[in-house]
């Protein structure tokens, strides 16, 4: 498979990978069939030994034919629906970065056929948002912080190795509790506090996974805005926290979102990244690694690190009054023409090209993988 994830292969060799991922969904809307969702397991274990559901936007679409993605799993001779039920039974817990619908939609719908009680981990703000969906109005009360609640299929647990990051400002209903990070200047992840008001920082999460036997890490960042746009240092705190492991070659992959192409203006990022912002974050990591290694430059300093690009929003045609800029490879005259044109734009291809150009100039030594639904990342 090439470095941009075409096809259904694996992104690197089995002996290199600490974890295996299946991309159930890699987008951030507008298509409900391809929202954020990943199955994860240690590379040296079987899928049937237990998996972790990392984000839960889209689940069922891929699991209707699980053998295509889980080609190394053992299934009995049964229907596609039966195999999907088996895969669901392998999930031991779910980790959710934040409570937006493109990250919890599948989790909510799956509760209608849930057979067992399952823990859901995340920051407290994320869990409170999920609990607000399972409120008896939007959806039945099937989630609870009480592990002894017999009616709750999802047990919410705020115990996880995670770092808060900012997913942009949101306008809330009056009196709704907001969750705002405290901005400090130390190198540890910022603590957080609750407040009330109309404007709130949407808190997302960066999860750090360590395979203890292989002594390797994977960092998975949920939706995130640039520090330069959000006015915080939350992302820098994450990079500083993982820099020593990256300097030792122990950090093997970073999952990082890139929702839009470079043409998207900062005022319409809505808490997301574009290729220039994504690469700026990686340059910040590279600088932290340079300091940790006491080197003079960052050329090639991230060699061996894979940047797995996720959450690309499927391209929709701009309409009248659309505030977003037209992608650079799209002829504006085509939008006003009745003649068929080469639209919609393949935004994944555009983002891959823009990141390639940035890496060609920056020379950090990265391998960049722009994900597709159904793709395998890591060891088979």
From TrEMBL:
Sorted UniProt keywords: cAMP, Hydrolase
SUPFAM superfamilies xref list: Metallo-hydrolase/oxidoreductase (SSF56281)
Family: Belongs to the cyclic nucleotide phosphodiesterase class-II family.
E.C. number: 3.1.4.17
GO biological process, one term: negative regulation of glucose mediated signaling pathway
Coiled coil spans: none
One MF term in the entry's GO annotations: 3',5'-cyclic-GMP phosphodiesterase activity
Protein name (Swiss-Prot/TrEMBL): 3',5'-cyclic-nucleotide phosphodiesterase
